[in-house]
Amino acid sequence: MDAAAAPLAPSPRTLEIGCGTGFLTRALRSRIPVGSMLATDIAPAMIARCRTRIGAEEAGFQGVRLATAQPGSGSGLCR
Questions:
Q1: Can you tell me whether residue 21 is helix, strand or coil?
Q2: Which residues form the Methyltransferase domain (predicted)?
Q3: Whole-Å CA distances, 41 to 4, 9, 11, 45, 77
């Protein structure tokens, strides 16, 4: 069986690295509408654009968290 066709857990956790404008974030959420999702980017401006894109469809994006990765800070992620 192709790994892409394997069944998902009932409530999967999704991590998107480099969400950019949110185009693929929206596509991922439509394919995996349940579970939690963390979409990250190193550029605060891209997080803002992603938030704007998915904000128009807020009902389908419950459980989605957006965060800016802070490379080299040792603090992990921040909102």
A1: coil
A2: 15-59
A3: 24, 25, 23, 9, 10
